[in-house]
Design a protein that fits this description.
This protein is mainly alpha-helical and about 625 residues long. It has helices at about 1-50, 55-75, 75-95, 95-100, 100-105, 115-150, 215-220, 235-245, 305-320, 320-335, 340-355, 360-375, 380, 385, 390-410, 415-425, 450-460, 465-470, 470-475, 480-505, 505-510, 520-530, 535-560, 565-585, 590-610, 615-625; strands at about 190, 200, 260-265, 275-280, 285. The protein starts with a helix and ends with a helix. One of its GO terms (cellular component) is membrane.
């Protein structure tokens, strides 16, 4: 009986979710490999033919954005078909982008030692640069709006309580709203890309947004806002509606099971109730209670009153179908935690390769992935009160260090091998150097950090998705966004290296400050082009994001930025605090979140382009070495 129950559960699971499993574990890996092959070919083309130093990932990102815009201008079906194809690997890379940031933090102990004086100088430069950049960027944006824009900055889209009307000019970032329509009884969420030409609707809880999934909003198709949306409660109005139309209800996004009871027409002669259950799939199972039983003397059981009808049917159904309900709930639970099971098995299997062979990449890889998933699913991190303080990247890296240290002590019995394994964690032999046998030794194989760095290039290409989704906002506010972004780009390339070196900060760290405002995905190639400290850039970037999420709103109010000026708020937080602050804006002003997403992508792209120019590289180095 026990084996048969497990067989039925597995059979039902694969029957319902086989398409999702094929997408997640077959199509996505193939798509990622295809994108990496394209990136490798473009890199060879740029270096061997054009003989310039420019990241292939950024070049492909720009080409992909231009191609999507051309397709949308020609024929909409072409754009939809192309986006549905590229969204398979690119959407996955956006969802896991924060995991790909971790190698820069894991290898932090390998950095050169720094004195206490230089540490204090770095802290002071960071704080002053953050505040000055915040204020200057806000006022320049306001000035550009007053100069180039004829309409008022106050907009009906900006305040959350003003987003609830049903006007035709509704923002694509309207808040979650439960609508009662004539053709559907369920609530739908107007996603971030609802205003684009490839809309997607989602039902979501107000607390379901995660800051590390900010890029999910930027995606243009079937990427959920949060990594997992589990419990979507029904309101009273929905329950009364479901009682009338139980068979027409659909729920395309809820991943946890939803159970509701729908009564049949009161005019029917027999008392009956339908119980419907929906798991993560699109199918609905409707179960009917058995017909009334016959007594020995009086025939059928007398008809119950209307007040007792629902109670009677619920008890009858609950008594007679516990096994079916248990099967359905188990299937839904298996769907929710299937990837946890897969990676946990991979983690335990990789222990054998770690302790009985010299190649540590599989163990480090599964350790990083499992710790990241553990942190992102921890109740403490998902609590809105602590989410802005406890960033998943920092917490998962700390847990990775602890597991690696314990593993080293078990395997080698000496702490000094911890530094050796950190060097093996990232050997810089990514897909770009995989076939380079002249610079790398025979047994210098790629580490887990190199795998994540290769996937990071796929994430950079995926940043073209938010640019395409918000292209209308870019066209509308182009003259208000580009001047402050250009001013900030030039200031970061000139003032940070000059001032940092003058006050006593080393040359590579002075150049590393150039990437303080840039998101990690684009800041890494920027600082690599300038030969700066990528470690310092990574730390300051994450701290800027956390600080922006904590103090962004109060600082904007302090410098008298109007609450309705969503363009200034989006540009200021996007360029100064990048992705983490943009996730904060999702819960405050979703229209500003769109502008913020555009701003940090455009700003990072400009910085990568400028840092790829040879004369600019020499100029920045001379400023930091005077």
């Amino acid at each position: 009986m026990f084996k048969q129950w497990h067989y039925q559960t597995g059979k039902r699971f694969f029957r319902i979710y086989h398409k999702e499993l094929i997408r997640e574990y077959i199509l996505i890996p193939l798509g990622v490999v295809c994108v990496i092959c394209v990136l490798y070919g473009v890199d060879r083309l740029i270096k061997d033919v054009f003989r310039i130093k420019f990241p292939a990932s950024v070049a492909v990102m720009l080409v992909n954005f231009a191609f999507m815009c051309m397709c949308s201008m020609l024929k909409k079906p072409y754009a939809d078909m192309y986006i549905s194809i590229i969204d398979v690997p690119l959407g996955w890379s956006l969802r896991w982008m924060n995991l790909f940031f971790t190698p820069a933090f894991v290898t932090l102990p390998l950095s050169d030692r720094i004195s206490f004086k230089e540490t204090m100088l770095i802290v002071a430069t960071f704080v002053i640069g953050y505040v000055v950049g915040f204020v200057v960027l806000a006022y320049i944006t306001i000035l550009c709006q007053k100069t180039f824009s004829s309409e008022k900055m106050k907009s009906i889209f900006t305040r959350q309580h003003e987003l609830g009307d049903d006007t035709d000019q509704r923002s694509r970032f309207a808040p979650v709203e439960l609508k009662q329509s004539s053709d559907s009884s369920n609530s739908t969420f107007e996603g971030a890309a609802a205003g684009s030409e490839h809309p997607s609707t989602r039902q979501i809880d107000d607390h379901g947004l995660e800051d590390i999934q900010l890029m999910s909003v930027a995606s243009n198709s079937n990427i959920p806002i949060s990594r997992s949306v589990t419990h979507v409660p029904l309101r009273d109005s929905q329950i009364s509606k479901n009682e009338k139309n139980s068979s027409s209800s659909t729920d395309p996004v809820t991943s946890s099971p939803m159970l509701y009871i729908s009564s049949t027409d009161r005019n029917q002669d027999t008392a009956s109730s339908n119980i419907s259950f929906r798991s993560g799939g699109s199918k609905t199972m409707t179960m009917k209670p058995p017909t009334p039983t016959r007594t020995r003397n009086s025939g059928f059981i007398p008809r119950v009153s209307d007040e007792e009808k629902n109670i009677y049917c619920e008890r009858a159904v609950t008594r007679q179908i516990p096994q079916q309900m248990n099967l359905i709930f188990t299937t839904a639970m298996l769907k929710e935690h299937f990837h946890h099971i897969i990676y946990s098995l991979g983690f335990f299997a990789s222990m054998f390769s770690y302790f009985f062979s010299w190649y540590t990449m599989p163990y480090h890889f599964f350790t990083a992935v499992c710790t990241f998933m553990f942190i992102t699913n921890a109740p403490l991190v998902n609590n809105p009160k602590h989410k802005r303080f406890v960033h998943p990247v920092i917490c998962s890296v700390a847990l990775t260090w602890l597991i690696m240290l314990v593993s080293v002590l078990i395997k080698h019995r000496q702490v000094k091998y911890f530094i050796t394994e950190l060097r093996d964690y990232k050997t810089t032999r990514t897909y770009l150097n995989l076939f380079n046998y002249t610079e790398f030794k025979y047994r210098q194989w790629p580490g887990a950090g190199d795998v994540f760095s290769s996937c990071m290039d796929v994430s950079i290409v995926a940043l073209s998705m938010p640019m395409f989704s918000y292209r209308r906002d870019l066209r509308k506010h182009f003259l208000s966004m580009i001047p402050p972004i250009c001013v900030l780009s030039i200031s970061c390339l000139t003032l940070y290296p000059l001032i940092c070196h003058k006050i006593g900060i080393s040359t590579d760290r002075s150049i590393g400050f150039v990437g303080r405002n840039i998101t990690l995905a684009l800041g890494t190639p920027t600082i690599a082009n300038l030969n700066g400290s990528i470690t310092l850039m990574a730390v300051t970037t994450v701290l800027s994001g956390v600080l922006g999420a904590l103090t962004g709103g109060p600082m904007l109010d302090w410098i008298k930025v109007p609450e309705g000026d969503y363009v200034t708020r989006g540009v200021t937080l996007g360029c100064n605090s990048s992705a983490i602050a943009t996730a904060y804006l999702l819960g405050v002003d979703k229209r500003a979140a769109a502008i913020s997403s555009l701003s940090f992508v455009l700003f990072g792209t400009f910085m990568v382009i400028l840092s790829s120019i040879d004369s600019m590289q020499s100029f920045v180095y001379n400023l930091a070495a005077l």
